Prior knowledge:
- 38% of the residues lie in helices and 17% in strands.
- By secondary structure, it is an alpha/beta fold.
- The chain has a two-stranded parallel sheet with strand order 1-2.
- The protein is globular and about 40 Å long.
- The chain starts with 5 loop residues before the first strand and ends with a helix.
Amino acid sequence: ANPQMVFNYVSGTMTDSTEKGKVMWACVKGKTENDLIKMGFKNAFMFRPGFIKPFKGQQNIRPLFKVITFLIPLLMFLFPSGGGTVEDIAKAFGLM
């Protein structure tokens, strides 16, 4: 393995890094994060977005999300660190 490698992992909100909660999927995501940190990467970054705003022309959007898309500006105003766009995540990864 390359000791200079950096790992970016997108898990999402409500991840339980204690691995002891009552919600199994949250504990599994938390265990995954903890294991990635222990793997010896130069850095391992865990991203936990609450929502990702779809981009114009995006396909395969869940029907419910199409209905509530108009709420995204309000959510981004109320919870500025709770989510963002695909471009925001790419910038955080250093891809843009």
